[in-house]
Amino acid sequence: MLATDSGLKAIVSSLLSRPDEIMLEIGASGELAVARLRAVIAGVLLLLPLANMLAGGSIDENLIGLAGAVIINILAQVWLALSRRRRHYRWLPFVTTVFDVSVATLVLVLLASHHLPAALNSLIVWCGYLLAILLTALRSDGRVTLLAGATAMVQYGLLILAVFAVAKSPEELISIDYGTVTAASQWQRLILLAVATVITAMVVYRMQQLVQMSGTDGLTGLPNRTWLIHRMPRLFEAADSENSSLTVALINLDGFRQLNDELGHGGADRALQHLVALLNGLADSGEWLARVRGDEFVLVLRKPIGTAWERVDAVRRIVADHSFEPDRSSVAIRMSFSAGLACYPHDGRSLSALLRRADRRLQMAKRGGRNRVVLREE
Ligand SMILES: Nc1nc2c(ncn2[C@@H]2O[C@H](COP(=O)(O)OP(=O)(O)OP(=O)(O)O)[C@@H](O)[C@H]2O)c(=O)[nH]1
């Protein structure tokens, strides 16, 4: 199905924007997979000068080929070491992608210096561009795919112009081994690079959509537990590096079972949506809200527990003051929640430890009469 105009705009803007933290996380493991593959391919490149020597190639040619292969191998090992680090470098996929494309161009330039038609009609080396573009799908970042495609087209386009400019006669572009170089076949190659870029970008976009769907709660549109599990380690790392605290608030609606009985499932669903709209309207930067199950939510605050308690308690009062009206004819229903707080790193160093502690405090809030926020055991 063809994308509509607005659909196309949405796809392009999604591909050009920075992926969310979870996609970047997935992309970082993809970068490591690409780095491993690159190291293997670079190792194979070392054998080419040797094969050329055995086939009777000149010493100069072999030395140049060997020097090129050694440099490529050193850089491949550098990229591998950087992609293995716990700390992810945001610039790494951009640099390695340009590197991959440029290696294909470099080999074509070397071929051109040897035999002009080889540079433009070699299929194997030209496929290096396709490989470099396709491998960006593993980085899960549309910007990297578009950069790979643009770099390949610009570099290969310049190579075409250079070869046609250097050729003194059309005969120089005819080869027994590589066939005849024609402008039409070169246009086709440029178009194929563009098509490979578009297809890879669509794969990245679909993957982004799937990851977003799997991390989103269908009823409220909030991030879900899966999202939280993937997001929290990054928030812990940020808190560690800034030497700051994070507070996790486990929020549970009061008497939601009764609300279901009174309003039916659909009415109770609308009550949940009403609460989420209210909470979203109150959200500050440095706060993340997720629906973890039924009538239970987690609010993560980049605050120490005391300040977080003041904030969550203020939200609790606002929720209690904003009754839910199921429809115009029925009476407004007062909603309230209870919450238990836990603080990173003091109460635990993992999401599950923090949620266990927060749940104990939530149960205290329920036992204490509901509609309250508890930050410590008495
Ligand atoms: N409408 C609706 N109900 C749900 C959904 N998920 C869970 N529930 C219902 O939410 C209720 C959860 O109730 P509980 O939190 O266990 O109990 P409660 O009545 O809220 O009582 P306290 O939490 O002790 O105040 C159950 O009746 C579930 O069936 C949902 O997505 N939509």
Q: Could you please describe the fold and organization of this structure?
A:
The chain is an alpha+beta fold and 378 residues long. It folds into two domains: 5-214, no CATH class; 225-374, Alpha-Beta Plaits. The protein contains 13 helices and seven strands. A five-stranded mixed sheet has the order 4-5-3-6-7, sandwiched between helices. A hairpin with a 3-residue loop joins strand 1 and strand 2. Helix 5 (92-114) runs antiparallel to helix 7 (123-135), helix 7 runs parallel beside helix 9 (183-214) and helix 8 (142-166) runs antiparallel to helix 9 (183-214). The longest helix is centred in the middle third of the chain and has 32 residues, at 183-214. The protein starts with a helix and ends with a strand. The relative contact order is 0.08. The model has no long low-confidence stretch (mean pLDDT 91). Bound molecules: guanosine-5'-triphosphate (GTP). Guanosine-5'-triphosphate binds next to strand 3 and helix 11.
Topology at a glance:
Blueprint: H1 5-16, H2 21-45, H3 47-54, H4 59-84, H5 92-114, H6 116-121, H7 123-135, H8 142-166, E1 174-175, E2 179-180, H9 183-214, H10 225-242, E3 246-253, H11 256-282, E4 287-293, E5 296-301, H12 305-321, E6 337-344, H13 351-367, E7 373-374
Parallel strand pairs: 6-7
Antiparallel strand pairs: 1-2, 3-5, 3-6, 4-5
Helix pairs in contact: 2-4, 3-4, 5-7, 5-8, 7-8, 7-9, 8-9
The structure holds guanosine-5'-triphosphate.
